[in-house]
Amino acid sequence: MKNKKIKLISCILLSEAAGIIGSVFTAESVATWYKEIERPSFTPPDYVFGPVWTILFAMMGVFLYLVIESKSRYKNLALTLFGIQLALNTLWSFLFFGMQNPRYAFYEICVLWIFIFATTVVGYKIKKSYALWFIPYLLWVSFASVLNYAFLTTSF
Q1: Could you tell me the pTM of the whole model?
Q2: What is the tens place of the pLDDT at every residue in 89-143?
Q3: Which of 116, 69, 74 is nearest to 92 (CA)?
Q4: What is the domain count for the chain?
Q5: Contact 100, 29 (CB under 8 A)
Q6: What's the domain range around 146?
Q7: What is the reported pLDDT for 2?
Q8: For residues 57 and 61, what is the distance between their CA atoms, to the nearest angstrom?
């Protein structure tokens, strides 16, 4: 039982680490570049993003733990897709905030969305309830994709 708790916490920390890496690119730009550009009217307040992403990364960590513990024939596929989408998630922060390039970030978030969707589908194949851990993430990235696109038409 203790080993499972450690594994669960490790999976959550791994996912949160991707968010922390992404925030390195975000922090400086939010205080400078991002403040100066025109934002779409439906952009949430800045204080919303931190808590939302923290919760989503924790949920991704639970998903990862569940997949690791499964005996499904889809386990390796789910782990591969999970790793790719996690890396793409971090890459988006670098492109949008680090490079200050919403256009490249938009192209990338479209690819990210596909990998999140695929991860959700494979999670569903492992066990239907596993997909529930990824649905909020898929919905948030869907919104983020629309927001990213709106930045292209509003500011650039």
Answers
A1: 0.95
A2: 999 999 999 999 999 999 999 999 999 999 999 999 999 999 999 999 999 999 9
A3: 116
A4: 1
A5: yes
A6: 2-154
A7: 84
A8: 6
CATH number of the domain where residue 89 is located: 1.20.1260.100
Asked if residue 126 lies in contact with residue 54, where contact means CB atoms within 8 angstroms, the answer is no
Question: Of 65, 66, 59, nearest to 116 (Cα)?
Answer: 59
Closest CA to 137 of 85, 65, 87: 85
The owner of tokens 């889809």 is 74
Are the beta carbons of 67 and 75 closer than 8 angstroms?
A: yes
- Asked if residue 75 lies in contact with residue 148, where contact means CB atoms within 8 angstroms, the answer is no
What pLDDT was estimated at residue 10?
Answer: 98
**Distance (Å, whole) CA 24 – CA 22:** 5
- Give CA–CA dist 41/148, Å, rounded: 12
